[in-house]
């Protein structure tokens, strides 16, 4: 059984940081990068991120209709937003739960679809992401954007499930602990020996570069 195409979509500093040292919601990319993000997310069926990312932002990015006269409206078509979390301690006051999106939850604990009305659907994590992605494929998810955080990205990479990386490089050196792949004490990722080819490179404002890599 095939699995969805999994695309990492991130903005990173030169030293691989995706947030400032103080943590919280990150705004690394320029307005032009936000337009690229808008385009990338409009092409997927669903997005997925972990609880830490949700806590930091308390919302998700909404696809916008960008008209030529600078008028911006929220698109009626939004990808399904999937949260991967074993914790059920969500704050219903977060903006995320008021946004006009479909929300799914993936958890490794048995779920009760009547226990949390904030999510339209709750799915069981089936021992590995490869098995769980098969379930998502059966639910009609063909293209999945992986938005973070680092632990979730790491889990997908260790199973060699990433098909594309769409990364905007921000010309800053930030420092701190918030890298997009966490430090590993083992060499599991290195041993994958995965190669990537460049599909496209775009020069953005403020000397940013957006690169689309595809798995070979």
Task: Write up this protein.
By secondary structure, the chain is an alpha/beta fold. 17% of the residues lie in helices and 29% in strands. It has a nine-stranded mixed beta sheet with strand order 7-6-5-2-8-1-9-11-10, with helices on both faces. The longest helix is centred in the first third of the chain and has 11 residues. A hairpin with a 5-residue loop joins strand 3 and strand 4. The two termini are 20 Å apart.
> How much of the sequence is in beta strands?
25-35%
Sum up the overall morphology in one term. globular
Strand order of the largest sheet: 7-6-5-2-8-1-9-11-10
Uncertain residue segments: none
Largest sheet: 9 strands, mixed
Secondary structure elements and their pairing?
Layout: E1 5-13, H1 31-41, E2 46-50, H2 51-57, E3 64-66, E4 72-74, E5 80-84, E6 103-107, E7 121-124, H3 129-138, E8 143-148, H4 150-158, E9 164-170, E10 196-203, E11 209-215
Parallel strand pairs: 1-8, 1-9, 2-5, 2-8, 5-6, 6-7
Antiparallel strand pairs: 3-4, 9-11, 10-11
């Amino acid at each position: 059984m095939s699995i969805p195409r999994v695309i990492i979509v991130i903005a990173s500093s030169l030293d691989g940081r995706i947030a400032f040292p103080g943590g919280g919601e990150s705004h690394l990319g320029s307005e032009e990068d936000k337009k690229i993000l808008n385009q990338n997310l409009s092409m997927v069926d669903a997005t997925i991120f972990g609880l830490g990312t949700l806590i930091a932002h308390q919302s998700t990015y909404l696809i916008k209709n960008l008209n030529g006269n600078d008028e911006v409206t929220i698109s009626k078509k939004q990808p399904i937003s999937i949260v991967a979390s074993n914790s059920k301690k969500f704050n219903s006051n977060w903006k995320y739960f008021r946004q006009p999106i479909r929300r799914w939850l993936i958890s490794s604990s048995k779920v009760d679809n009547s226990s949390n009305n904030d999510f339209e659907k709750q799915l069981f994590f089936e021992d590995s992401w490869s098995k769980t992605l098969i379930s998502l494929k059966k639910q009609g998810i063909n293209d999945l954007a992986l938005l973070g955080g680092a632990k979730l990205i790491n889990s997908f990479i260790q199973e060699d499930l990433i098909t594309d990386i769409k990364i905007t490089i921000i010309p800053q050196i930030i420092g701190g602990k918030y890298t997009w792949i966490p430090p590993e004490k083992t060499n599991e990722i290195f041993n994958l020996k995965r190669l990537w080819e460049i599909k496209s490179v775009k020069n953005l404002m403020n000397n940013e570069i957006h690169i689309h890599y595809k798995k070979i």
